[in-house]
Structures are given as C-alpha cells and as structure tokens.
Amino acid sequence: MTFSELPLSSIANKQYDAVIIGGGMVGASLALGLGQQGKSVLLIEKGAPQPNWLSEPPLRVSAVNRYSETWLREINSWQEIDEASSCAFKRLATWEKGTPVVEFSADDINETHLGSLIRNEAIQIAAYKALEQSALKVDVVFGAVITAYSQKTDSKLLVTLTDGETETNVESHLLIGADGANSKVRQLSNIGTSGWDYQQQCFSITINTQFEQQDITWQEFQPSGPKAFLPLNNNYACLIWYDSKEKVGHLKSLSLDNLKEQVLTTFPELPGDFEIVKTASFPLTRRQANSYVKNRVVLVGDAAHTINPLAGQGVNLGFKDSAELIELLGDTDLSDINKLNQRLSVYQRNRKGDSLVMSTAMDGFYHLFSNDKGLLKSFRHLLLSAANALPSAKLKVMKKALGF
Ligand SMILES: Cc1cc2nc3c(=O)[nH]c(=O)nc-3n(C[C@H](O)[C@H](O)[C@H](O)COP(=O)(O)OP(=O)(O)OC[C@H]3O[C@@H](n4cnc5c(N)ncnc54)[C@H](O)[C@@H]3O)c2cc1C
C-alpha cells in the first residue's frame, strides 16, 4: 500500500491546531481522532509505510486489548486493519514452571475474545488508510523531522521542520510528541526522564507453524525470565524469550537449526512442528518523562512512557493517552490559554498516574517471577493458587487484561 506524498514545501507557513511529530501506531491514530473532531492537524513521520511491510513475515506484534479495539473502532481505524495481520485470542494462560496453569477465558465473561495480536505495521497502515479515505483537515508528510520550535505568540508555536534538503516553518497551537522512546520533541522541550534498563532482554522468534491457529496466548514464568507464545494468522506465531543480555547474545549467534533445538528444550511443548523464519532482540527499558505537558507541548505514547512489555500494555497505554487527549480537547478553544492549561493538566495527572501504576505493576511481576528465591517462590505459588481458586480475583485480572 502506498500513500500520496505531500512535499514539505507545500505546507510552508500553514497554521494548524496541532502538529504531531511521529506517525507510529499512536501518532497516526491520534491524528485521525483529532481530525475527526474538526481540528486541523499536521502529522510528520520521518519514515514512510513500505509496500512490502505486510507481505514479509511478522516481527513486531502487539497484544491489543478490548479497550483499544473499541477506541480504534470509534475512530474508524480498526475496520482498516489487514485481516491476515490480526489474530483474536479467546484464552490467556499463565503459570510458573511445575505449577498449575491459571487460565482466563473470554467465555467466563461472555465475551467473544480477550484481545488481538496484531502486527504493529498493520495498525499504523490502518490509520493512514482511514486518513487517506477521509476528507479531514489532516496533512501527512513523510520523510521529515522536527529541528526546533519556539513560542511565536501567547497562543502559537513556530515549528521548524526539515526533509534533509529544505527547512519549513509552520504555526500551531499545540506540538505533540508521538515520536517514540527517544523523542526529539521531549529533548527540544528539555523534559527529563527517569527510569532504568532491565537486566533482561527480549528475544522474539517468528515461527511458521505446522499446527492449526491457536486461540490461546500463554506465558510460562521461569527463573531466567518468562517464555511466551503469541498466536498469529497465516500459520505464523511468535515465541518470546526473556533472558539475560548474555543469553540473548548467545541465542542470536546460533544457526536457526540450533536455535530450534534450544526452543524445544526451553519452551513448553508446542502443539506441533514449526520452522523459525525470523528473529529480533529488544532491550527492555523503563522510562517516564518527568512531565507529559510543558506549555503547549504534549507527550503521548512511548515518548511519554516505556514499560516492560511483560504483559503487553505499552501501546494500549499510548491509545489511552490519545483517547483522553482527544476527549479533553473536544470543546476547548485552543487559543484560550487558561482553559487549555487546565485541560492539559488534567491530561497529565490522569495519564501519568495510569502509566505509573502500570509500570509499577510490571516491575512487581518482573521482580517476583524472575528469580529462584525461596520466600518469593512460596508467595508466587500462593498468588497463582489464589487466582485459580477465587473467581472474583480472576474476574478482576481479566478486566485489567481487557483494558477497562
Ligand atoms: C519487545 C516488545 C514487545 C511489545 N509488545 C507489546 C504488546 O504486546 N502490547 C502493547 O501494547 N505494547 C507492546 N510493546 C510496546 C509497543 O511496541 C510500544 O508501546 C509502541 O510501539 C509505542 O508506539 P508509539 O507510536 O508511541 O511509538 P513508536 O512505535 O516508537 O513510533 C514512533 C514513530 O515516530 C517516528 N519518529 C521518531 N522520531 C521522529 C522524528 N524526530 N520526527 C518524525 N518522526 C519520528 C518513528 O519513525 C515512528 O514511526 C512492546 C514493545 C517491545 C519492545
């Protein structure tokens, strides 16, 4: 799928309600949502969607929860997601090696599914497709980045952009950083971060399966780190191997045949044979921007927070940022400084609170399960047995997993 290219020069000196830097899953969806509110938006993405993205074997996939699905439906983006790139799952199971399985099922809460595993690129492309098919006041420029911004008037920022050859200025009430973990907008605004790198890394292994598509995603906790199975469409699935940096380095050096041997001895038994087609490793980082808002600058998605992907919540938090920002800006006159400041401070309070709770919960899981200490082991067993024995506890966990 190719999208029409708007040259940077064509938007010179234009005025916008919002300039969004970063057209990943979060930024592209936010542009769509703000556009549907009647806002004029400029979306700047340094890359460009490639025509072969969805014909290659999948590599980066996200577990998208039901809250995010509902929101993406509302902004008409969900409907555009390539079907072959999405796989709904009905069941979610977790256990510690050698202990009973705790299983959550959509049937228990009369739902059709608990969530969907979707290729990141498919979510991004869906938003671009919806944008292209609409007649919204949203300009999209690929292959450009922000270089600077300054306060032009009380209610306007001057944003400087470049495509590597020419520089262009535009004016905007808001500048939104949706440019990921190493956000340039965050740097330009001098917003600091706090956080750390986890000792574990994530090794993702895409497999071509010779067994039928599964409706379950599972995670086995092992002292060296969790091992997870993510079902995908088209005979693909993803195995996620969390382990030390050294171990992941070793796994990366293996031939695919030797890697398969390691998978067979380390992972729980899979329902059939498989072939490894692609691998990638990711460092795990926890980062929180010290502030999500500074004057007329707002951070969303990974620009504001990155969390341990243990429970697949990162992009779901990003969609919640976008949904809340859109709602708060709905009836706000963006040139009214007092009103805008008041709305943005609500955004910051709510979203920072939510993402801190989620990050802390992920850290709790990480520390609780990634070790072999006797006392913690007993506590883990107690926790998982309680989750199995108490239907109310199970329901609570399931509601969290759905994202509500
Ligand atoms: C191994 C792993 C597994 C994960 N699994 C899950 C999961 O199952 N579920 C889940 O919810 N989350 C998951 N996450 C987290 C999820 O991938 C991120 O939260 C999500 O990608 C954040 O989206 P984003 O749009 O905010 O940022 P990004 O995806 O980083 O997108 C940022 C965009 O901005 C563009 N950009 C960057 N700099 C500039 C610039 N200066 N100018 C213009 N454009 C720029 C980039 O090209 C990119 O397109 C996982 C993360 C990892 C590492």
TrEMBL record:
<dbReference type="InterPro" id="IPR010971">
    <property type="entry name" value="UbiH/COQ6"/>
</dbReference>
<dbReference type="GO" id="GO:0006744">
    <property type="term" value="P:ubiquinone biosynthetic process"/>
</dbReference>
<keyword id="KW-0503">Monooxygenase</keyword>
<comment type="pathway">
    <text>Cofactor biosynthesis; ubiquinone biosynthesis.</text>
</comment>
<dbReference type="InterPro" id="IPR036188">
    <property type="entry name" value="FAD/NAD-bd_sf"/>
</dbReference>
<protein>
    <submittedName>
        <fullName>FAD-dependent oxidoreductase</fullName>
    </submittedName>
</protein>
<dbReference type="GO" id="GO:0008682">
    <property type="term" value="F:3-demethoxyubiquinol 3-hydroxylase activity"/>
</dbReference>
<keyword id="KW-0285">Flavoprotein</keyword>
<dbReference type="InterPro" id="IPR051205">
    <property type="entry name" value="UbiH/COQ6_monooxygenase"/>
</dbReference>
<dbReference type="GO" id="GO:0071949">
    <property type="term" value="F:FAD binding"/>
</dbReference>
<dbReference type="InterPro" id="IPR002938">
    <property type="entry name" value="FAD-bd"/>
</dbReference>
<feature type="domain" description="FAD-binding">
    <location>
        <begin position="16"/>
        <end position="329"/>
    </location>
</feature>
<keyword id="KW-0560">Oxidoreductase</keyword>
<comment type="similarity">
    <text>Belongs to the UbiH/COQ6 family.</text>
</comment>
<dbReference type="Pfam" id="PF01494">
    <property type="entry name" value="FAD_binding_3"/>
</dbReference>
<keyword id="KW-0274">FAD</keyword>
